[in-house]
Design a protein that fits this description.
single chain, mainly alpha, globular
Amino acid sequence: MGCIRASLAVVESDPCILTCVTGQPKHSPISTIRHYFAGEPFILTPTMKDPTSPRCSELAHPSVPTTALALFIVVGILVSYLPQHLRIVFRRSSEGLSPYFVLLGTTSSTFAIANILTLPQSQQDIACCREISRFACMAGLLGIAQVAVQWGCFSLIMFLFLIFFPTPGPEEHVPGAPPPPTWRDALVVVLTCVVHFVVVVIISAVFELWYPNLLGSWANFLGICAALLACIQYIPQLWTTWRLQHVMSLSIPMMCIQTPGSFVFAASLAIRLGAGGWSAWGVYIVTGCLQGCLLAMGIRFELRDRRKRMLEEQDADSGSDETSALLGGNRANGQSYGAEHQQNR
């Protein structure tokens, strides 16, 4: 509260600051700032969008097919992560998941959600929600909801990785496979992700409140970081899965849904944000390509293991038939010998 009071004093002493920050010089400094903290329609953005602007008019009349597609993607993202969550829970183990994959994936998702929230166009869409209908507002913010759901689902994987800390699963381990992560590794991953989230939120708030003219550059920086981490994210998981020669707790159904879904998701964001939002949708193109490589590797290992199990079952059946035939022959010989012995007596 002390910081807020100090800010009020500074703004009251210099109305120019108020004009630059809120774009509303007609209101008194104290009244305007109090309205802002009370949730009134004063948005701290580089420019205050006129509710009658073309952007707000466009959002006021959402396209039904586009809205339906965006809503379908939100539900699809949520459903696509369920197989991974359930696989970890049912196996009672997160074995097979690289801690670096979890770390990079969570931080990349954090960068992505911060990116789309700080993009000027997203800021404008949020500002327009004060003047348009609830349905139009919901439709206009579905792009943000898509990224938010993805961030939440991957964050849940991070916590499941810690809760169901890797314990040996039923799969046969290949000699020379990488050692399993330690409990300390899991704690470091979770703590790093939490600290990273807090730092990104604080820095974004600083740009939002005091450097709004640099908010677009900060948003692009966040998007670049998200894309770079997405590229690196799958490298440790590809390496871990290759060394283990098993998918273990990694869900193939999840990847089957998400690999093509990443490209549909990117197209949906590109339609909403345009070329200027490349830092938001570009990351999902990169993710889709790398996840496709991991999916191909996982399917290969699963097909190999299935063939191996079928051969083992066939060998077991053959061995059982041979044993039965041998026992049957011995039984027949025993009966024949008993009959001859009875005749001799």
